[in-house]
Amino acid sequence: MAAEGKTIDALSQFELTPVLGIVGHSVGFTQSNALMLLAVGLITGLMMYGMAQRSLVPGRFQALAESAYEFVQGLVTEQIGDEGKRFFPFVFSLFMFILFGNLLGMFPYAFTFTSHIAVTFGLAAVVFVLITVVALAIHGTKFFGYFFPEGAPIWLAPIIVPVEIVSYLSRPVSLSIRLFANMVAGHVMLKVFATFIVLLGGLGAVGPFVATLPLALNIALVGFELLVAFLQAYVFAILTCIYLHDAVHLH
Amino acid sequence: MDDRNGFEERLREARTRRGLDKPQPNRGSLPGGSWGIGFRAGVEVVSALVVGIVLGGLLDRWLGTWPWLFLVFFVAGGAAGVLNVYRLFTPRRGA
Prior knowledge:
Distance between the termini of chain A: 54 Å
Structural class of chain A: mainly alpha
Radius of gyration of chain B: 23 Å
Helix content of chain A: over 70%
Strand content of chain A: under 5%
Number of strands of chain A: 0
Helix content of chain B: over 70%
Order of helices and strands of chain A: HHHHHHH
Order of helices and strands of chain B: HHH
Number of domains of chain A: 1
Strand content of chain B: under 5%
Radius of gyration of chain A: 22 Å
Oligomer: heterodimer
Distance between the termini of chain B: 32 Å
């Protein structure tokens, strides 16, 4: 498909197409939504099925479920402190949703829903609203002191306050752009080198031999993408924790 | 139990002496090599600029003062971007 016209078409993989026939078409249910539901189902299945046994010596699924739980719990308590325990369910769902979204996107014919800025910005906006509400609920109007550091001369306020407000508002933007850009860049690179394989493979006698070069690169890239999938979910979760720490402790 | 704790202690000391244990990264530090850090710094600057531009533009459209608030918030966005990058490289205050 990509190489038919001897051109590299790396961006069509991000197009949304409705699924589920006429019903999906009329309500705008796309493959992105389908994969989100699949990710939620898989996470729920993993946790329910994995913890159904509750054995002392965990089996495979229980070990996976427990290590995911303990990983996020360590992250939350280390970053936020003891007050962070109440945010654990939120951070855990966020982390698992992004992680499964990134990993499901690595399957052939699958769609990476984290490669859409609308999705990542939606997640980041939820985080942003949460940290603002938490800070306001805990600290009340003292929260607005966040935008003006103590001890700074008062005549600097017209400069510092807008800069701090813009810096605070840029949090969800940078959070969403980071995840979205990483996923898009990785999948575009995979597609470009996969197209090289097809194009070079058709170059007559030497073609198949030359085509092994982009093939080798693509194999390395798939491994790298798996790393990025984990890393970006981790970065999203840890930044959420850092922002929550700022909201709870406010300094 | 004491013996075992002592053993763990001695093992850790020995491992540190031989340089087998990498020093633990600081709390709140994010993973990433030089590419990761560079990319993160770039994202911080760009997103702060985007927020400044959008905010300034919206305020201007609301108050009808184009292009003055846009210019002010463009500069503020640039400054906020630099501030974000500065915060990225300074260890977080408090614990």
